[in-house]
Amino acid sequence: MSQVQTVGDRIRQDYACFPQNQSYDLYAEDVYFEDPLNRFQGVKRYRDMIAFIQRWFQNLTLELHRLDLQGEQAFQTHWTLSWIAPFPWKPAMAISGWTDYRLNEQGQIVAHIDHWHCSRWAVVMQLFGQSPEPSPDQR
Q1: Residue 1, exposed/middle/buried by CB under 10 A (0-12, 13-18, 19+)?
Q2: Bridge partner list, 80
Q3: Are the CB atoms for 44 and 66 separated by under 8 Å?
Q4: Which of 49, 94, 117, 118 could form a disulfide with 122 if both were Cys (CB 3.0 to 4.6 A apart)?
Q5: Which contacts qualify for 129-134: CB closer than 8 Å, 24 or more apart?
Q6: How far is Cα 113 from Cα 39, in angstroms, rounded to an integer?
Q7: CB distance 105 to 113 below 8 Å
Q8: In the chain, how long is the greatest CA-to-CA distance?
Q9: What is the pLDDT at residue 137?
Q10: Are 46 and 31 in contact (CB under 8 A)?
Q11: What secondary structure, in 3-state letters, does 42-88 show?
């Protein structure tokens, strides 16, 4: 089994139990992380972000729709993250998107870049009961 397959299998397991028991050992110390709200480097900051999500949001699920290998040092996941926001009216929220992962020669994740199928504004509007509009590529 190749390094990229091994890492992909562990990421598959991480999605199934997200946000508990994540495999932070898969990430290089200086991993680059990006999503529509954040951009930073370092596995410690990544751990802190997951801890924040776990502390503040309820009923978190990260559903993996598919994982595509893209050569020997890259793969992509397609997913939906859903949760209950920490507001008195307990709005249910969800974001679907994909993640591009890149590995170094040692098989560690050096880039984790999340993309959403909706705008940041569409996510905010879910607080008020409005579903996000699908992006043109989802229609």
Answers
A1: exposed
A2: 63, 96
A3: no
A4: 118
A5: 129/91, 132/94, 132/95
A6: 9
A7: no
A8: 48
A9: 47
A10: yes
A11: CHHHHHHHHHHHHHHCEEEEEEEEEEEECCCCEEEEEEEEEEECCCC
Element (H, E) at 110: strand 109-116
Tokens of 56: 């503040």
Report yes or no: 94 and 85 within 8 Å, Cβ to Cβ.
no
Q: Is the dihedral of CA 18, 114, 57, 91 positive or negative?
A: negative
CB contact at 8 A, 44 and 17: no
Six-digit token string for 119: 């705008």
Question: Could you read off the pLDDT of 71-85 as tens digits, one per residue?
Answer: 999 999 999 999 999
**89 burial class (0-12, 13-18, 19+ CB within 10 angstroms)?**
exposed
The structure tokens listed for 29 are 């110390």
Residue 126: alpha-carbon gap to chain centroid: 19
